[in-house]
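hey can u check if this looks right to u? its 553 residues, i copy pasted from the old doc so theres a chance i mangled smth
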Amino acid sequence: MRLIVPIVVALGSFALGRWTFTAYEGGARSSAVASTANANTPLAQPPQSITRLSLDEVFAGEDPFSAAVRAQEWVDSATLADLRRLAANSESLERRFWEWHLDSFFLDALAARWIALDPEGAIPAMKPIAEMQEKREDTCTIYTAAAQLRPTLILDEAALINKSGHLSQATDRALQVLASKNANAARRYLDRFTEPGVRREAEISIAKGMAENDPVVAVTMSQRLNAPDLIEVAVEKAEKLGVAEIQRVLTAAAGHLEEIDLPRLLIKHPDLASLTGVGAGKPNDSLAYYRRAAAQAASPEERERLLEQYDSLPAETRESLGAVLAVAWARTEPQKAAEWALAYADPVQDATGPNLAADKVFVRWFTQDPKAAFAWWQALPPSKMRESLGNDVSTYVADAGEIDRALELFHPHSDADWMIATQLAQTVANKDPAKAANWLAALPDATNLQDAAKSVIAKWYPRQPGAVAQWVEGLPPGRLRDQAMDGYILEIAQQSPPDAANHLDSIDDRELRLNATERVYGEWRATDPKAARNWLAQVDTVDEVWRARMLRN
């Protein structure tokens, strides 16, 4: 069934969407007409027999195509009495067309027919259906369909606020539609919203409608209403009007670009690369998925043009855009992508866009063709970036069983490499924990190896506790010795908290020592609470506030 959903949606668009509704907000004339009929022709009256079918029968079977045609005929031939019966039995709307994604088409046609037959009484008559749909929390309802056709009917006759105390979906839609046609008319309804939060929601709806004609209005309103989402709405509307309108929006939103996905815009509209005066700001990291998707969809020509203009791209989006383009490029030409990223990499700073792109591109290349990628890497001149690339693939090399090569590849630069160190240590310790321990001891002391040391000791201690003690105590004073002692004490405490307590003074780092003391106390209290409390009361390496807090727990 899922395979035919796109086809069904297209069919519904053709079959059910052929009704159009012409509404004159200032007069009483309204009509529903088929696309094949003249706009001045009276309502067509197909054979009445189709209305004798229940909606169960209309949407029966496994063929959504036939069902769509039957639904079209059902609505075309429905009388006011038929529609009132439908309202009285609103549960009958819970049918197969929801599965086939025909709900919006069916409800649009139903609302158009109803309003055409009874312009003044349609909204109250639809109420049972609308209430049932609100209870089910449907996103597409008969009231939202009616709001698209006659927004003032909804605003005058339907409930403006939902049961949660917020603007109803239908009110939101009606205000948007009305504001897109007559902003002043929409604003006249604001006095009906006395609660400040709901009034703000109504103003946001009106701003969205006004953005249909002038997207910059939404930017201005976003700042007044503190509604940053309106900026993205403005961009969406501007895209329909062309690059010049997008430029107006970006200029108006200068300094408030967090809600705009600039990388996606630049990929889709490369001419924006020359835009100046956009101002400060940085892309929202939550949009990373969409940037990647847009980069992957970019044609080779678009990608090449943008990367050639890299230096002239807006500063706030240059690095993230270059990174996603390079990573997408690596799918087909990994070496060229890697060389481009390396050319823009910063030799000092690690976390720049091109540096991260080079890392990701090289990892992707290595997983696809390790021999070619490794040969390219070996030919690189010595540099910090070369070492960073080696770090990133070292775990893949280790997983492939080439332990010695993996350890040679790893050259930590900072604490940021702790995760790679831990993964490598765990892989080596699974086979030879002593070898893993000696490798850790040879790494620069500035590296954070706490998790790596703990993982090695956890593998090693059950097999050779004496060897672990000898290794830890033989380490020179420094960061690794404190971190290794912390892991050693944790293992001892699980068997003998008093023995573990005797090693706490061997940790020089105050924070590590406090954490180790807390774990020893916890293990001891689980087996002998009184002895644990007596011990903690006499420990002289902790402050009194910390001790009191621990004893209260």
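The two ends are 57 Å apart (CA to CA).
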